[in-house]
Amino acid sequence: MKRAAVILTFLFCLEFPLLAGYKIKEFRPRPAKEYPAYQDFQKVVIAASPRVDQAGVAEIFDTEKLIEKQIMPVVVVIENHNDFAIRLNQDDIFLVQKDGEQVSPMPFDEVLLRMTKQKGWSTYSAPKEILYKKVGSRDMVEDFEHKAFGERMIEPNGSDYGVLFFPLPSDGSLAGTRLYFSRVYNMTLKEPLVFFEFELGKAK
Predict the structure, then answer these.
(1) What's the whole-model pTM score?
(2) What angle do the packed helices 108-116 and 138-147 form, to 10 degrees?
(3) Which tens digits make up the pLDDT trace of 119-159?
(4) Is the dihedral of CA 55, 66, 112, 117 positive or negative?
């Protein structure tokens, strides 16, 4: 049995050499206004820090596969200075390209699959909710799931962050791009605040 386990581990490492030995990185974002790209509006501050090279990615995730697969993580920091909670969902956030096209963020499980597999969804028989758990180490899956933006509830006078994943610009330039938050929800009044939108291209 031990020999079989060793063989399976060896084969896994051959298939996913950059995923073996993944280490969870502790990431603590800076205050929102310390990032070049942010908006302060309605007592809410939202900042974004795109990572377009391996040095930037390495502060968050222990993998070189994101840049290799042309995937750009964007750290989003939210500070809520109101006396009510707010809610944001990544389905309501878009990367607006310079030609005006709105690009939706990729779910973290899709990101994991793109990092580890060359084939498309149709070639897999297992549902992706099950499949993504099999493509990397447990630490890697938990790290991406924990840091991915998903849905965030920010308590009154609280703050939080999450990571969005977008296609990496082919030239690595974000000039002329914007980050658009179409809905920031006031949990007390059960209604959205006015949308947020700011330039991402000035972020370094």
Answers:
(1) 0.84
(2) 140
(3) 555 555 556 566 566 666 778 888 999 999 999 999 999 99
(4) negative
Q: Give CA–CA dist 152/87, Å, rounded.
A: 6
Q: Which helix (H) or strand (E) holds 161?
A: strand 158-167
pLDDT score of 177: 94
State whether residue 137 is helix, strand or coil: coil
Q: Which two tokens stand for residue 154?
A: 């920010």
Query: Which pLDDT does position 71 carry in this prediction?
Result: 96
**How far from chain centre, in Å, is Cα 60?**
10
Closest CA to 168 of 177, 156, 181: 177
Would you tell me how many other CB atoms lie within 10 Å of the CB of residue 183?
14
The Cα–Cα gap between 180 and 198 comes to 7
Class assignment of domain 22-199? mainly beta
For 121-138, give the DSSP string: GGG--S-HHHHGGGSS-H
Digit-coded pLDDT (tens) for 85-112: 999 999 999 999 988 999 999 999 888 8
Stretch (H or E) spanning 93: strand 93-96
